[in-house]
Fold this sequence. Notes:
By secondary structure, the chain is mainly alpha-helical. 37% of the residues lie in helices and 4% in strands. It has a two-stranded antiparallel ribbon. The relative contact order is 0.14.
Amino acid sequence: MxxxxxxxxxxxxAKCTGLPIEYITIxxxxxxxxxxxxxxxxxxxxxxxxxxxxxSHIWGGYTSNERKKAMKxxxxxxxxxxxxxxxxxxxxxxx
Length: 95
């Protein structure tokens, strides 16, 4: 479990800061100023538990299933999965 002292610097700028998880939708993330940071954080840190990749919730505008698929396709190399997701022509960060 992440404590407030362990939250990344960018987290205070996220649109979802302080909201219950059930309020966060993919569409909610689209105009978030820290969306790239959020996605990278999920792939690199937040989705891992005891050495296993266990994604949950929406991070960076992507569902747990979308992130899991990207990670599997890239051999769990978060940098490559990140690039794959942000460059998706339909849903990527620069779309």
